[in-house]
Amino acid sequence: MLRFSQFWTKKTLIGLGLGQFLSLLITSTGFSSSELARKGFNAPTSQSFLNYVLLATVYGSTMLYQRKALKAKWYYYVLLALVDVEANFLVVKAYQYTSITSVMLLDCWSIPAVMLLTWLFLHTRYRFKKIAGVLVCITGLVVVVFSDVHAGDRAGGSNPRKGDLLVIAGATLYAISNVSEEYLVKNADRVELMSFLGLFGAIISAIQISILERNELKSIHWSAGAAVPFFGFAVAMFLFYSFVPVLLQINGATMLNLSLLTSDMWAVLIRIFAYHEKVDWMYFVAFAAVAVGLVIYSGGERGEDEQRSYVVGDEEDAEASKHFEEAASGSANHNQGAGTSSKV
């Protein structure tokens, strides 16, 4: 049996606190998106574009100032950016076809997908305690989904089957993106990751906007009421993307996805205290269940399960990391004399 004090390690507290900060940021982006949709702004890729520009500008400038050689090849970041942009697009698009309930439930697919991918590619080992924490978290969300709060939401949308497939596809891409970020942030560099994710994400988004959303943007009548949530969304996403690598490095991709399960519940609390709305008591049971699941998952054993593949002693993963650095350094050495202006 684990002692209660084992749960309250510094790593556990940082992981839980940072995870809920990220969850609140996601909640704020949800309110911003709802306000934009209410004002007739239906351009999901355009909403994310400014976030990628901010990432490229802030972290790209930092990277140029530091003048460090690349630790990963540039095309890794192209693939990551493509996956990230399309994941955001698919999940936002799904709301046009299916219900919020379906999106909430099916988006949980990212959690087992992350666990499977980290087990296959990062050699992360999950013991019973970790799996039990995940199951408790998902149980908490299922309580919300099937409570009376969402009773009127179960009728579905205009094309529920299409919407559900979009959510599953988007959740799978989120899993791939999170696991890839976890690997890169632990084997490359956080500033490099954010710089290139922002750069290539902005390029891919701009191309997609010109193809899919150009006419939509022309028809939008900008006002202060639309500009505030638009820029608020961008700032919240920038902060979210900036702190995600920190949580990935401390606790891993699974902890990130579990923490984000509380975003819908934070939205409910905001409605209660800010708008004085009444909600079903099952929400509080669900919130408590997710909180307990997060503590079970992240507490105790001082991170041995989640970080085992990055600790000295696992020779296979140490060797894989060595090969990663050697492969990346080959292209960096080739361009060393050309300066850093071409890197970002």
Give the tags:
344 residues; 15 helices; mainly alpha; disordered C terminus
Walk me through this protein's architecture.
By secondary structure, the chain is mainly alpha-helical. The chain has one domain. The longest helix has 29 residues. It starts with a helix and ends in a 10-residue tail after the last helix.
Low-confidence stretches: 301-317, 331-344
The major pleated sheet works out as: none
Q: What is the number of strand segments?
A: 0
Number of domains: 1
Distance between the termini: 51 Å
Identify the overall geometry. Answer: globular
The H/E string reads: HHHHHHHHHHHHHHH
Helical content class: over 70%
- Percent of residues in β-strands: under 5%
Quick check: average pLDDT? 76
Kindly provide the radius of gyration, computed on alpha-carbon positions and rounded to a whole number of angstroms. 21 Å
H/I helix tally:
15
Q: Output the structural class.
A: mainly alpha
Give a quick summary of the entry.
The protein is mainly α and 344 residues long. The protein has 15 helices and no strands.
Write the layout of secondary structure elements.
Elements: H1 4-7, H2 10-38, H3 44-66, H4 74-94, H5 100-106, H6 110-121, H7 128-145, H8 160-187, H9 190-218, H10 224-250, H11 253-259, H12 263-275, H13 282-298, H14 304-307, H15 315-334
